[in-house]
Amino acid sequence: MPETLALKINGQLVEVPSGTSVAAALLIASQPFRLSVIGEPRAALCGMGICFECRAVVNGRAHRRTCQLFCEAGMTVETNL
Amino acid sequence: MKSFDILVVGAGIVGSAVARECALLGWQVGVVSGGTLAGSATAAGMGHVVVMDDSPAQLALTAYSQSLWHQLAAHLPKSAEYEGCGTIWVAADDEDMVQVPAKHALYARFGIETNILSAAQLAHAEPNLRRGLIGGLLVPADGIVYPPAVASYFLAEATRLGAEIFPARAVSAAHGEVRLNTGAVLAADRIVLAVGADCKLLPALPIQRRKGHLAITDRYPGFVRHQLVELGYLKSAHTLTEDSVAFNIQPRQTGQLLIGSSRQYGSTGPEIEPEMLRRMLDRAIEYMPSLDNLSSLRTWTGFRAATPDKLPCIGSASGLSDDATLWLATGFEGLGITNAPGAARLLVAAMTAQTPAIDVTPYLPARMKAQVSMPYA
Fold first, then answer.
1. Which fold has domain B2-45+147-206+309-371?
2. What number is the ipTM of this complex?
């Protein structure tokens, strides 16, 4: 069994294997990463830090590219509502 | 040869404003523009509509222009992104704060309402400013626009009234004739050079290119609420010789933040200079430390058209040229957006022998005759 850790995604506690990217955690939690200017939900596309589609609010900081971040215990991740 | 009442060379916000004003008179107007319409300083600048008190003449022109912006605001298209967000001049120390009541009194003399802010009121108005700032001066009637969209609106108004646009470069413009690089020759009773810092058509104009850097961030709605400018800005904007930076930040409708500003003479290439950009951003972060956590999307540079006395050239080219058909609307430094509506009105008043709304003497190009040899560092 891999080690797991817990983080909060849009207020919900989510448990993921350590080494999981925040983008993967958002997909596991079935949450939109961000809402576009016209309110469309968006999710990771390139997965390698180029397209900026996967931005979310991480630990209160907006526009973090979640595909480039690993999950940490106690982290908060929020869709930019 | 095609003939006009007036040919405007340059389709930045100033040229476009002049074209519209002349078209409103019922004149036959031609506009000559070589590059992208409004693609030069108009596209590079911040779009801050601001009353500036660096000299009585600048204050008179910016206050007059601001009143015209207020009249325009209701007619501008949504794309112009006009917002009456106001400016806050930020005082960092006692020396800055001394300027605040003086500025308040001076603006009042020109009919511009301002509010003096205490340290607590400043912190309440702009929570992301660093603690420990002394206060500020709010100028509620200042605003912001997206300048290329305004220029495009002015040109659309002019063409709706019959103006013609010639997408070509003017290779000469004198004695009632404008020759284009396409070989075409246009004739007009009057020619207006609204060419910003590009003075090839009248080399006698003592205008220097003054480079500036800007950065724009991702969307952070509500992070900044007013245009914020450090009170030390005038010191920075005034120096004629040294490179300088000043804290100047603007909230766009999209939630993006435009961050400025830098001023440089003698740097003629458009490339980003990492050292200037660093100094500019460090200055901004000094006033607003949490800026350091935001992502910047793009940086760019542009060139202001600077005259030796910091005032624009509006009026007949007499004194710089013996050509009675030649008129000027250029040399606005960092205030071309603010002053475009006022300059267009004043120029048209001069061309039609009407009484102008304010005294135009300080802006007459002829004053430059004595300054042609004034040295720049």
1. FAD/NAD(P)-binding domain (3.50.50)
2. 0.76
